[in-house]
Amino acid sequence: MLRGAVRHAGAASRTGVRRETLHREAMARLISARVGLALGGPDEPGSQDPPQPNLDGCPPEIVDEFKARVGAASSLAGRTMGFDDIVSPLSTEEFFSRQFPHRRPTLFRGPPERFAPLVEWENLDELICTGRLNAGDLRLFVEGQQVASELYAMTPYGSGYRQQEGDAETVDDRKVMALLRQGATLVVNGVHERLRSVADLVHAFETALHSYSKVNLYASWRPTRGFGTHWDDHDVYVVQVHGEKLWHLYGPTRKFPIGADTVLNDLPPASPVWTGHLTAGDMFYIPRGWWHDARVPPSQRGAGSIHLTCQARTLTGRDVLLWLGDKLTDYEAFRKDVPLMAREGQLEQYLEELKTLIGEVLNDRTAGELKDDYRSRWTERPTAGFGQWMEPWKSPNWDRYRVVLRGVDHSHLRRDDEDASLLLTANGWTYTLDPKCLPLVTLLAGNDAVTVAALKAVDPRAFSAKFVDDFIKMLIRRAIVLAVPPRNGTRQLHGTIPT
C-alpha cells in the first residue's frame, strides 16, 4: 500500500525583525523614568504628547477602508474563524482579486467584540503568572530597544535556589508589571503555539494565503512606541483585539524589499502618508515594505491594548530559484563543477549550457508544479491524538472514528500516468502509494475528515473491511493520518464529514 516517503525541507523562513543586541539605551530610559524623567504620557512631568503628523495634501485613497458586516463579523464564541470573517465585507476571493494585487494597505473595521475570544486578558495573566512562559519567550521593548531579560527574569524557586544546567529562567511578574508601567511594550512571539484560539487564526491565514504564517502578541498601556518606525519583509495583518492604537503609516522606500536584500533600506520617509486609530474589532493589512509605527494614544494612557500581528510570507523570485534548484539536481549538467579555473571560454560555455537547461526545465507544466509543491510543502503543528485507545482500531466504536489526513488543507494528490504510483504530498512529506488505493486516498484528501465506516463503504467488493482497517492502521502508524474519537475529539474539524 505504502511504497515510500520523502520528507521536504520546506520553504526557507527568515526572521523579519532583527533583534537588538545592546540594551544600554533602553536601560537608561527605564532608570531615568524611575527617578522622575518620564517616558511618555500627558500627565507625567517633563513629558510631551507625541507629535502629530501633518497630513495636509495626503491622498485619501492611500488606505482603503471597509466596514465589516455585523452579522458576519460578530462574536466568534463557539465557532472557528475563517478568512472571510477577517476581511468582511469582502470575501476571500474579492480580497485577492481587488486588494491584494495592488499591494495597498487596507483597513477592515468591525464591531468591538469581533476578535475578543481570540485572547482574553485572563489569558495574558495565565501566560505570565503561571510559568507557561520562560524569560526567553517573553520580550519587552521601548522605542525599538529590547529590554535586557535580566531586568525581569528570576531563578526558579527564588534567589536562594542553586541553578542547575538546563534550568530555564522564569518571569517575575512584578518586575514585568513595573516595566510596563514605565512604558515598555510586551511581546509574546509565536502566541499561536500557546493559545488554541490563536492557532485557529493561523489556520485561517495559511489556508487562504497558502503560505507560512506566524502570530505575535503585543500588549501596551503607555503612549510610548514599542518599536521605532520600521518596515517588515513580510505582509502584516494587524488584528486589534482589545483597546486602541494610534498608527502612523509611511510609504515604501524600496519596492518589494526582502530580508536578504543587498541594498540598504534604513531611512524612513520624512512624513507619514496616513494616520489613524485602530479600535477593538479592526483589522489592518500592511503590505511588506511599508514603514509604520504604533502606540497607545495619549488619551488612552493606562487603558491596555492587545493586538496580534499575523506575519505572512509571500513567495518571491528568489524562492522560485531555490525551488528550481531542487528540480535541476536530476540533471548531470547542473551537478557538474563550475569550471572557474578552466581555460578561457569554458566558463562561458558552461553558463550557456546551464541557461539552456533552465529554459528546458521551465516548461508549460512549471506553473502548476510550483503551485502544487508550495501549497503542500509545509508541516502543520502535530496533534498527538492521545485517547483511551492507543490503538484505536481496537475500540468498539472504531467504525465511528474520524480519520484526518495531516495537512489536508494543503495536500496534493497526483499521478503521472495510469499505471504509475500515487504521489500524495501532505504535511511536509510525499508518500508513494499503491494506485489501487486511489478511491480511498481521494476520499481522505478531499475532505477534512472521513469516518472509518465511510471508507469501508467506498467499494466493499474491491476493499474488504479488513483491507480498509489494515490500510488505516498503516497510515496511523506512519503518522500520515490522525484518528479522532467520535466524542470529545482532539481537533476542531471544519466542513462536512462523510458518514
Which regions contain 5 or more consecutive residues with pLDDT less than 50?
10-25, 34-59, 489-499
Helix content: 10-25%
This entry's quaternary arrangement is single chain
Query: Biggest β-sheet, characterized?
Result: 9 strands, mixed
Mean pLDDT reading: 80
Radius of gyration: 26 Å
Count of DSSP H/I helices:
13
Report the principal-axis shape: globular
Spatial order of strands in the largest sheet: 2-3-13-10-15-9-8-4-5
How is this structure best summarized?
With 499 residues, this protein is an alpha+beta fold. 25% of the residues lie in helices and 20% in strands. The strands form 5 sheets. A 9-stranded mixed sheet has the order 2-3-13-10-15-9-8-4-5. Strands 1-19-18-17 form a 4-stranded antiparallel sheet, sandwiched between helices.
Structural summary, described in words:
It is a single chain. The chain is of the alpha+beta class. 25% of the residues lie in helices and 20% in strands. The protein has 13 helices and 21 strands. The strands form five sheets. The chain has a nine-stranded mixed sheet. Strands 1-19-18-17 form a four-stranded antiparallel sheet, sandwiched between helices. Strands 12-11-14 form a three-stranded antiparallel sheet, with no helix packed on it.
